[in-house]
Amino acid sequence: MNFYIMTLFPEMVMDVLNTSILKRAMDKGIITAKAINIRDYASNKHNKVDDYTYGGGAGMLMQAQPIYDCYNAILKEIRENDPEANPRVIYVTPQGSVFSQEKARELSSDNDIIFLCGHYEGIDERVLEEIVTDYISIGDYVLTGGELPAMVMIDAVARLVPGVLNNDESAETESFDDGLLEYPQYSRPEIWNDKKVPSVLLSGNHQNVEVWRFQKSLERTKERRPELYEKYVEEHPDQFTAKVIKKRNKILDKIDE
Ligand code: ADE
After folding, report:
1. What CATH number does the domain containing 196 carry?
2. Which of 28, 139, 173, 176 has the most CB within a 10 Å radius?
3. Residue of 6, 93, 128, 144 with the most ligand 1 atoms within 8 Å of its CB, for mutation
4. Assessment of whether the complete model's pTM goes beyond 0.90
């Protein structure tokens, strides 16, 4: 999978992507990431890429032409390998739909994704209309630029690409995959700061461990993310019939924490 990031700060992006798990995935050739400096496509001698906003208002706007030329250079490169390619262009903006694990999963099956990172007061609307396929935000707050959001999305998407994570880092059972938050986990030592690891986890009884973990996931989700809990209950009525709850409680009653 190939990520292309159109940005005014390519070093910032590559410094982050060139570390840890993403770096390992790039070394293995599973993913590639390329940050392209929009300023390299400025057509004036001062390499200026911003200008005043028509109609007035504070702040500068990124101009259409350098972004459009930068995009076309990337598209040309992608189409050298795949002449039919029609890559997604994601403009990272607080005005987009909010990013989620579901969106990350959807994006993880693309071959090429282009991110457009804005700065200043925004980008000339005409180039957005021309090239952008998806408007995505990482949450309801405003950052100084699109680089951090693009990196957040790339990290979340890349780890779902087969081969990026090792078995022991597996993306299989974790928060959001089934709509619940993950259960609490413990490692050695058995007692730390007078706190004991729940004894069910030392019991070797796999069914009990599974029921206990499921219960903890339910409780944690209900407490921390009540809206996710409600959705889960609605979508999994089979888990909340009187019979199933009774069976679960019978096992939980036997478990000594
Ligand atoms: N650019 C600035 N703030 C942002 C946000 N919350 N999400 C995506 N892009 C942004």
Report:
1. 1.10.1270.20
2. 176
3. 93
4. yes
